[in-house]
Amino acid sequence: MKKLIIINGPNLNLLGKREPAIYGSLTFTEFFEEIKAKYPTVQIDYFQSNIEGVIIDKLHEVGFSFDGIILNAGAYTHTSIGIGDAVKGIETPLVEVHISNTFGREAFRHQSYISAHAKGVILGFGLQSYELAIQSFL
């Protein structure tokens, strides 16, 4: 059984409430339950933190024992050299995901400290970005 983890960064705990025109009205908990039901032969874990260092610790924890990591680092994507270095330092392949098309948003969101160290990047497909990432590991 494949062992995957979705790691979400800051403010993604507000999905379903935060800017529904961009992020939709489904909470991540609701979406996660749907995804787990859709892929019953895959172990999919979930972790969310608003704190940069906690995300780095989680990457270190799972980065040598899981089959894949799906990371939406939120705004830390564009600011955190530390998260980028953590992704570079682990062995588990990682797909960077974003719900919105970051290139259609503010210019500062066009930079990622994660992309260069990721297996791939999926953005702009709403919550389906996560499912596309899961499929990339299967």
UniProtKB/TrEMBL annotation:
The record marks R18 as: Transition state stabilizer. The active site is at Y23 (proton acceptor), H98 (proton donor). It is an enzyme of class 4 (lyase). Coiled coil: none annotated. Its EC number is 4.2.1.10. Homododecamer. NCBIfam families: aroQ, PRK05395.1-2, PRK05395.1-3, PRK05395.1-4. This is 3-dehydroquinate dehydratase. It comes from Mariniflexile fucanivorans.
